[in-house]
Design a protein that fits this description.
This protein is 49% helix and 4% strand. It is mostly helical. The radius of gyration is 14 Å and the shape is globular.
């Protein structure tokens, strides 16, 4: 049985991970996201779901999720997350 990719669900996850990663309160951790996750400028207000399909094949999506988890682990240990003048408690 062949696995079919649910691009819509994966694209939503890519957008969500990028949104959260952009609130990392440590520039070095965020830079890791830009290099190993979603490159700066790949998601803008004009980005379509089709534009993000390159992140959604099994291997790319798995690598992206792994990168996100590394970023979250490192963000927790360092600067936490920052959003609307609120900073999480640093790890």
């Amino acid at each position: 049985m062949k696995h079919t990719i649910d691009y819509k669900e994966r694209v939503e996850m890519v957008r969500a991970m990028d949104l959260i990663a952009r609130n990392i309160n440590d520039e070095n951790v965020f830079d890791y996201w830009l290099v190993c996750g979603v490159a700066d400028g790949d998601i803008t207000e004009n980005t379509t779901d089709k534009d993000l399909k390159c992140y959604c094949d099994d291997n790319s999506f798995r690598d992206l999720m792994d990168c996100f988890l590394v970023c979250m682990k490192n963000a927790y240990k360092s600067g936490g997350l920052y959003c609307d003048h609120v900073v999480t408690k640093e790890g």
